[in-house]
Amino acid sequence: MSTVWRKLKLPFQPNVPHQDQGSTKFLSHCFSRDKLHMYNITSKDTFFDNTTRGRIVYEILRRTVCVRTCQTIGISTLIAKGVYDAAFPLHDGDYKVTGHLEERNDRQVLFEEWARYSAFYKYQPIDLVRKYFGEKIGLYFAWLGVYTQLLIPASIVGIIVFGYGVATVDTNIPSLEMCDERLNFTMCPLCDGACDYWHLSTACGTARASHLFDNPATVFFAIFMSLWAVLFLEQWKRRQISLSFSWDLTGIEEDEEHPRPKYETILLQKQQRKQKKKKKKKKKNEPEKQEDGTVTGKDRWRQKLLSAMAAGVP
């Protein structure tokens, strides 16, 4: 049965290079240059994926030191100040395939097998999405895939309920009575003063349309959707735990929140003001010198007095 099911799903599988992880489970740890011998590095060019390289570049830009003020500002503060409009990581090459299909990069594979309307019936290459965009975006599209798959049985039941309403609309007694002009029910005005009496047969179309969506079968549909919500939640929990284990996210911690660029800018401006005030005070306390560089008598006695007072301070 598993072989037959695999053959039936073959047309829905995306043409993505298979990433054979093997049966061996490796331990994961934050990268450190001091422990290169402990990592399974087959090639330095492919050791970090696209997402990790983008994060490294972003950290370099975020931690760049400003030369003039000797403060760690980074690209985020420069964006807040208006020096740059935006900063974002570049994609890995063009999305159009120019050479052979075997030489496609990850972006081209995702464009051909995932991010286009002609591939709507195929399964999502979640592992490749995670490799290119990161774990957060990969988990989002994994959730979207589970949600879309479970909407298929819900939509089938909804179509059946709608079909039941279409089949029984001509035999619905309230609709027949409202649409029968011979009965000629006269209704009270809908408002005071300005509105006139009206006939119930004018609401025939509304009654027939409401029966399509509100019929005895909708009670069964409401019960079914209540059970469907519980099933969807449990299915997503199962899928999330499976992906967390395979993507080594079981021991992940939240990233440290860095101060906002505007807040860092305000602190930097305050620090610069304090430094300017200190410089002004130093200039005031310095003895006045003549043009030849010698200190006058009053300033000499003042300098001696200040030095004697400073010597008594522990």
Question: Could you explain the architecture of this structure?
Answer:
With 314 residues, the chain is mainly α. The chain is 53% helix and 3% strand. It is built from 11 helices and 4 strands, in the order H-H-E-E-H-H-H-H-H-E-E-H-H-H-H. The protein has helices at residues 2-9, 50-62, 75-81, 106-113, 126-133, 135-168, 173-179, 204-213, 217-246, 261-285, 297-312; strands spanning 65-66, 71-72, 186-187, 198-199. Strand 1 (65-66) and strand 2 (71-72) form a beta hairpin. The model is unreliable at 309-314 (pLDDT under 50).
Name the features:
314 residues; 3% strand; two-stranded antiparallel ribbon; 53% helix; mainly alpha; disordered C terminus; 11 helices; two-stranded antiparallel sheet; flat
Identify the overall geometry: flat
Structural class: mainly alpha
- Low-pLDDT stretches are 309-314
The percent range for strand residues is: under 5%
Q: Major sheet, described briefly?
A: 2 strands, antiparallel
Q: Count every helix, treating DSSP H or I runs of 4 or more residues as helices.
A: 11
Order of helices and strands: HHEEHHHHHEEHHHH
Alpha carbon gap, first and last residue: 88 Å
Rounded to an integer in angstroms, the radius of gyration calculated over CA atoms is: 37 Å
Total DSSP E strands = 4
What's the overall average pLDDT, rounded?
79
Strand neighbour order, sheet with most strands? 1-2
